[in-house]
Design brief:
Strand content: under 5%
Radius of gyration: 38 Å
Helix content: 55-70%
Number of strands: 0
Number of helices: 17
Oligomer: single chain
Distance between the termini: 122 Å
Structural class: mainly alpha
Shape: elongated
Amino acid sequence: MKLLLFFLGFHMVFCLALLVLRRARVIGCEYIMLFNALFLPVWGAALLLCRGISDRRADRPGVVTEALRPRSDETVLSTPFSLEDKAVVPLAEAISYQEGEAPEDASADSLYDVSRSIVMDEDTLTETVVPLEEALIVNDTATRRALIIDVLYTNPGDYISQLYAAKANGDTEVVHYAATALAEIQKEFDLAFQDILRRKEQSPQDEALNDEYRAVLEKYIASGLLAGDALKGQLRQFAALLEEKLAKGERKGRWTLLNQKADIDLQLGDAAALDRDIERMTEHWPDRERIFLFKMQSAMLRKDSARMKEVIDEIRARDIYASPELKGMLRFWDEEAKEKDGQLVG
């Protein structure tokens, strides 16, 4: 019994010594290894010693997190990392170091020395970026052609207005590339419409196809490919599709559909249809600001100053929230009214 107590006492003293050496950083090990040594007499201590000898021979830091923990007079790094991570830092892009200094040493110095500045390469592109429209009118033929080819290989659908401008360029090759790109974009829309219409013939009651058709048509109208009568024809088609959807009486998404319908009627200059849209909006959302914007635009289409004054008075009487757009319109019409009053007085 005395031998067992002696052994336990010696074991506790030994483990305490290991803890002191660990806190003094004489040996490097995780705290879990100390617990193993404490609760597994002999074998736990042997495992800890073997691990320490192995780490020393392999030149590995026993405890990374403690080695990197700053003292009270050092700056605390908020993100823990290991010393092995320093080789991953892209020094050529992030920092500059003196000639002859090892990259690993440079990265470590920069991380620990807060007084050392990090030099970033200057962005030279900010002074060389110009709008595509301006770049296409430069005298350098090779530059113009390289730019238009670059547009063709990126996403020509995002540069339709620039492609139309390129069609008026004096360089025949640039004109050819631009015309080819526009024709290809138009072809993609035509194929999309043909595919949807073919599927609608097979499933005329499929509401998902109708939604897809409206989405493609809306994108087609917004693309900038259409103008004149062709644009008006597609706008009328889109308005008819929206009216068909609204006739189903579904409440979900109705506000968005009515806004789309009102925008289309405004583009077509159809004041009567716009008024019907406003009436349907007012049924469920009488106080929304967008309704009063459409009311003012309807009065503008009709050139009805008396109606415009009624709408403005209604906005002020009901204390409607005014966005910058609505405030701008109110300010404009107030100035118009003052000018007219001044002319009448004069």
